[in-house]
Amino acid sequence: WADLNSSMRTTTLQNLGYDQPTWDVPGSAFVESLSWESLPENEDSSGGSLGSVNQKYEASSLGFDEETWDCYVNHYDDYDWPELGAEGVLQSFKDLGWTKQSWNENQPPPDSEEKDWANLTYSEKAAAENLCYFQCIWDELSMMRPGSVTEGDFLWDESHPWYWCLYWPWGPTGDPTMCPTLSGTASP
């Protein structure tokens, strides 16, 4: 949050519903529960309540498109079970233990949902990576140092290989394959 210019913080990110705590902890903002298709596209992007903001435009201004948003931000969570198959990610969800019944909340979620990254099996980690999860995102780790009250006191800085993967996986190079994974590359 501290690395972002004030204009980006006060307009684009806040129009998406982010503040410092939700930006610094991936997976904690409500907007991340929405697929690209579900983001409001109202004509009025002047601010105000989130209902009057063109969130798709705001996300686009950060460099997101449908593919990057749905994989890296939403992780396909807003998709229906048949849509997962059409998107080509159904097997990854199955590898994590999901079934149609658990996805539709007719059964409890699979055990993988309660596991930390370190406790996932190799195949579960590979499936999670295919859904654009990395350890820090899967574990919903804060980017702030524990006990920090100072904005900008991050666990990682720009020199750490995870840094850009956490904030913008397509990062300064525009290439998500630069993010570290089990196989050494990432792809949505």
Distinctive features:
globular; 0% strand; 188 residues; disordered C terminus
In brief, what are we looking at here?
It is built from ten helices and no strands.
Largest sheet: none
- Helix and strand composition category: mainly alpha
Helix tally?
Answer: 10
Total DSSP E strands: 0
Whole-number radius of gyration?
17 Å
Shape: globular
> Helical proportion?
25-40%
Share of residues in strands: under 5%
- In angstroms, what separates the terminal alpha carbons? 24 Å
Unreliable spans: 43-50, 145-165, 167-174, 178-188
Mean pLDDT: 76
In N-to-C order, the SSE pattern is HHHHHHHHHH
Write the topology of this structure.
Elements: H1 6-15, H2 20-24, H3 55-61, H4 66-73, H5 81-87, H6 90-95, H7 100-103, H8 122-130, H9 135-138, H10 163-167
Describe the 3D structure.
This protein is mainly α and 188 residues long. 35% of the residues lie in helices and 0% in strands. The protein contains 10 helices and no strands. The protein has helices at residues 6-15, 20-24, 55-61, 66-73, 81-87, 90-95, 100-103, 122-130, 135-138, 163-167. The radius of gyration is 17 Å and the shape is globular.
